[in-house]
Amino acid sequence: MSDNQGHDWGRQGGGNAAPAWIEPEGGTPLHLRQERERARQRRRRRGMVLFLVVLLIVGAGVAWLVKAFLDGRAAEPTPDYTGSGTNDVVVRVNEGDAGADIAQSLLDSDVIKSVAAFMGAAHGRNELSAIQPGYYKVRAQVPAAAAVDMLTDPERRVGAFTIPEGRQLDDIVSTTGAVTPGIYTLAAEASCVELDGEQSCHEADDFRRAVANGSLEELGVPEWAREGVSAAEDPDRRIEGLIAAGRWDIDPSGTPMEIINEMLARSARMYDSTGIEQTSQSIGVTPYEALVIASLLERESQPEDFAKVARVILNRLDIGMMLQFDSTVNYALDSVEIGTTDADRARVTPWNTYAKLGLPQTPISSPSVQALQATENPEDGDWIYFVTIDLEGTTVFTSTFEEHQRQVDIASQNGVFSSGR
């Protein structure tokens, strides 16, 4: 018993137990396993360092390639033309165009070779920011700097003209022989442009024919005016009043029909901005009739009296009284003056309000937006009559014929009605 007991004790905790550095199952010694683990860690660290080194080398290489590419691009010259150009062209600067917009238009017209060249040439040129919308004669295929010079040269602007308030389509000839150019003449003169030494112009009659022969759609007549325009008896005057007074730019290379269409479309937008279709209803007339009234204001009164004259017209229409405006007599005459003769007033025309009740068949002039706004917002009053009593334009408004006649006598004494016939 004692031998077996001693053997058991010795195997469990005595001389026969395995050394601490040998695995119990007889595996790899602990110190070898620890050495191998340290070796693996060293290999991982070396691998990580190598990876980082490679990554840095690749990154540096990519950065070098990008820099080399950009340096190469920077070294390339900006595309630009040289020389004095090939031929004259007309380009347009639109309302609200920025420098890049202008550059793109020039590029599209082959005036410049690149937007970058133009923007570079325009840098620091303050006068370019003041360029007005409109049409300009320039040269095709010119250096960008030359294109900037051309656009800032006021002599190169073409197609620009002004239609004064109260101007008619046709010329007005006074009894003294003085001629006031009409819209057709003004547009014809503005259409003249010299390209490569050759002068090109439309004639006033070209515009008359376009108006007389074009459809309402081709002409660009707004919907609210088509009934009135269709009823007009004089074909080349049927768009009277539909071209607004103001500053105009037309494309000299456009056809007469294209030019008329653009002018009517822009005018319609101007008139629509006053709310003509809505506000005319509040005074009991159609939008076209409101335009007719506004045209009378331009020919019969000064701006400060527009709203009062509008009220006189509406009051007369309400009571069925003839308007009897000399301006409507003059509209059909070959020569005009402030005073008209008995024979002139007796002539029956589509416009003569001495010979017909109501409004003229069409407007008799180009009204301003101010005149149209006064028509839509007439001043309150019971006036039936008004007369200009002196050559300075002083106008007196009255409610009775007796009062009116006294003012007419004063006007006669002041020479307002003196005739040159």
Task: Spell out the blueprint of helices and strands.
Blueprint: H1 2-13, H2 30-75, E1 88-93, H3 99-108, H4 115-122, E2 134-139, H5 144-151, E3 157-158, E4 160-163, E5 172-173, E6 179-180, H6 183-190, E7 193-195, E8 198-200, H7 204-213, H8 216-219, H9 226-231, E9 246-249, H10 256-272, H11 276-282, H12 287-300, H13 306-318, H14 326-330, H15 342-346, H16 369-376, E10 385-388, E11 395-398, H17 401-413
Antiparallel strand pairs: 1-2, 2-3, 4-9, 5-6, 7-8, 10-11
Region (Disordered): 1-38
Protein name: Endolytic murein transglycosylase
Subcellular location: Cell membrane
Task: Characterise the protein shown here.
This protein is mainly alpha-helical and 421 residues long. It has 17 helices and 11 strands. It has helices at residues 2-13, 30-75, 99-108, 115-122, 144-151, 183-190, 204-213, 216-219, 226-231, 256-272, 276-282, 287-300, 306-318, 326-330, 342-346, 369-376, 401-413; strands at residues 88-93, 134-139, 157-158, 160-163, 172-173, 179-180, 193-195, 198-200, 246-249, 385-388, 395-398. The strands form 5 sheets. It has a 3-stranded antiparallel sheet with strand order 1-2-3, with helices on one face. The protein has a two-stranded antiparallel sheet with strand order 4-9. Helix 12 crosses helix 16 (369-376). It is elongated, with a radius of gyration of 44 Å. It starts with a helix and ends in an 8-residue tail after the last helix.
